[in-house]
Amino acid sequence: MNSIMQVRGLSKTFRLHQQRGIVLDVLRALDFDLMPGECMLLQGRSGSGKSTLLRTLYGNYLPAGGSIRVRHLGAMVEMVGAEPRQIMALRRSTLGYVSQFLRVIPRVSCLNVVMEPALARGMPRDLAEERAAALLARLHIPERLWQLAPSTFSGGEQQRINIARSFIVHWPAMLLDEPTASLDAKNREVVLALINSAKAAGSALIAISHDDATHRAVADRCLDIAPEEPAHA
Ligand SMILES: Nc1ncnc2c1ncn2[C@@H]1O[C@H](COP(=O)(O)OP(=O)(O)OP(=O)(O)O)[C@@H](O)[C@H]1O
């Protein structure tokens, strides 16, 4: 089977200009391939670079070196050094990113926030609304909240809305930053079931999770991204 992502020699450093130009070597020569339908968990102590890796893979950070190739519309596309419009094209239909926090848009209702990615892909409005409602119900968001803007919602409610929004469409590759972090056991089970359904539909996932239940339920393998202390130059 063809991989969905190929990472070779990936490294990322931060230079702290305000602090005597100190350089942090956070990611050092990472290599991995990600296949459709598999979930790889990122492991490593706090501060080892797990979030940095997700952000680098999503094109938010420019790596110091290496290559990130992603299968997009049938061809492998190099993300390192790609034009912003190429990165945006990948983000529209190939590469999904599920952060821990919902980016709240003022005055847009919860139902519309969840439907938006489906509408952007051209799904008819009634079908998008039906899917959004089913996801919100499954994630135990009370129906009385659906027409409200989520800015005043609790942290866990906002996280579930972000999950619903991310799983309403199919992503060939998904990057998940602690998708179950603020959730109770009942909602965590729903998120794990959504992850497993996405895998069954062929999505490849890279996830950060500190929780053993998530590990057991969805992980096919783990990547320890920084077995040693980072070097400070
Ligand atoms: N934008 C940035 N500028 C400078 N240094 C950064 C930046 N982002 C992260 N770092 C540093 O890079 C290292 C890795 O941070 P990162 O957030 O990726 O770790 P993590 O493994 O996700 O940690 P945790 O498990 O605690 O969330 C840390 O030492 C952090 O201080």
Automatic annotation (TrEMBL):
Protein family: Belongs to the ABC transporter superfamily.
Gene Ontology terms for molecular function: ATP binding; ATP hydrolysis activity; lyase activity
All copies of domain ABC transporter, residue ranges: 5-233
Name of the featured protein: Phosphonate C-P lyase system protein PhnL
Keywords: ATP-binding, Cell membrane, Lyase, Membrane, Nucleotide-binding
PROSITE patterns named in the record: ABC_TRANSPORTER_1, ABC_TRANSPORTER_2
